[in-house]
């Protein structure tokens, strides 16, 4: 009886540690008490680690390391890097930023690329937006929110 009770207590403690660990690792970004951007370690090969600085264009915005994007978004980044070919006719089209969620820039500054969504019959809601200054943004909710992609 005592052994069973100890086993249950150990299992409960292990489960609690797992919950705390997973909860603490669930976000890519945060802020310090001074409002400075913080980041969790990026994936290997992304160029951003725990001590990396966030580029000025990404400052104050949620970020995601390229290696932590969904596989389809990483594939789209690779297509952009190669210059295509792209699976959708609208890939590479000017993104007008009508929602004003990205910094305001001249017309033609931003371009959009489709991130395929498995099971979707159309282009879906996911996109990569690029800027002329080397910016990369990811949205998975059709331009409602964006994360700066750190490469």
UniProtKB/TrEMBL annotation:
It holds the Pfam family Ribonuclease. InterPro entries: N1-like, Ribonuclease/ribotoxin. Residues 1-28 form the signal peptide. Keywords: Hydrolase, Nuclease, Signal. Residues 30-43 have a biased composition (Low complexity). Residues 30-52 are annotated as: Disordered. This is Ribonuclease domain-containing protein. It comes from Streptomyces fildesensis.
């Amino acid at each position: 009886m005592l052994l069973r009770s100890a086993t249950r207590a150990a299992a409960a403690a292990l489960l609690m540690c797992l919950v705390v660990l997973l909860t603490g690792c669930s976000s890519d970004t945060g802020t310090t008490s001074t409002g400075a951007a913080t980041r969790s370690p990026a994936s290997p090969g992304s160029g951003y680690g725990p001590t990396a600085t966030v580029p000025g264009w990404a400052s104050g915005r949620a970020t995601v390391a390229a290696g932590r994007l969904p596989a389809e978004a990483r594939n789209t980044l690779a297509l952009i890097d190669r210059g295509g070919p792209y699976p959708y006719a609208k890939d590479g089209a000017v993104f007008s930023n009508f929602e004003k969620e990205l910094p305001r820039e001249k017309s033609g500054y931003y371009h959009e690329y489709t991130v395929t969504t498995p099971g979707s019959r159309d282009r879906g809601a996911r996109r990569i937006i690029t800027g002329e200054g080397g910016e990369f943004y990811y949205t998975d909710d059709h331009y409602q929110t964006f994360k700066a992609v750190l490469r």
